[in-house]
Write a structure and sequence with these properties.
- The protein is an all-beta fold and 220 residues long.
- It has 2 domains: 118 residues, no CATH class; 88 residues.
- Helices cover 2% and strands 60% of the residues.
- It contains 1 helix and 12 strands, in the order βββββαβββββββ.
- Strands 1, 2, 3, 4, 5, 6, 7, 8, 9 and 12 form a 10-stranded mixed sheet that branches.
């Protein structure tokens, strides 16, 4: 569940060359703070059925900003942003048969970021908290023979608004064969339904292509 943010750069970051330097460490920079509140429930009404649901509220304080000095000579790091995040996380698992298990999960997330008085980092709230509003996954695990397992997973990830990154659905699969207790051979495929753009805006996004890999794991 996306409940954390990347750590703020709290040390000086200097650009080589002659002054004026573009970036300066702010002497007032402190660690970012998150106050996390959670309420959840987990149950197992049947021997083969289990589920869980959790709601959460996060208060973020002292979030890192980049402030332009009055002389517009350099940028100073500061902590003039705050934010909130509210969401829910649910998952469940059901043993359909001794050799077949189905599991599913989803998250819903709403985040808001705002500047404190005195900040001129207008881009800060738009670049912080870049997480999709919802994600979901459905997974099937089937052991069709002793030591042999087939896993198929479908992932759904919501879109981002700024920059505009479309949502996507991806299909992954894995066929595993445990040769002995210390060795496993597997054939895995990711994004089997085609390439998808996962990072960056549409016009310049980084695409994750369909991929297939063979892996041998040997414990020593």
């Amino acid at each position: 569940m996306p409940r954390t943010r990347p750590a703020c750069a709290t040390t000086c970051a200097w650009v080589s060359g002659r002054p004026p330097h573009l970036l300066r460490g702010g002497p007032r920079v402190v660690s970012e703070v998150a106050k996390v509140f959670e309420l959840g429930y987990r149950g197992q009404p049947l021997p083969g059925l289990s589920y869980s649901a959790t709601v959460f509220h996060n208060d973020y304080g002292h979030l890192c900003t980049q402030e332009v000095d009055p002389g517009r000579t350099f940028v100073v790091f500061d902590n003039l942003m705050e934010g909130r995040a509210n969401g829910i996380e649910m998952w469940g698992s059901y043993q359909l048969a001794p050799s077949w298990r189905i599991s599913a999960g989803m998250t819903g997330l709403h985040q808001t970021m705002s500047l404190k008085p005195g900040s001129n980092d207008r881009a800060g709230p738009g670049t912080a908290g870049k997480d999709p509003s919802h994600t979901a996954q459905l997974r099937s695990s089937y052991a069709f023979a002793p030591g042999r397992e087939l896993e198929i997973a479908v992932r759904k990830v919501g879109a981002l608004e700024n920059p505009s990154v479309p949502g996507y659905t991806a299909v992954d699969a894995r066929l595993g064969w445990r040769i002995n207790p210390d060795m496993e051979l597997s054939l895995a495929g990711q994004n089997l339904n085609g390439s998808l753009g996962e990072y960056g805006p549409v016009e310049s996004c980084t695409e994750l292509a369909r991929s297939v890999a063979v892996r041998l794991v040997w414990g020593i």
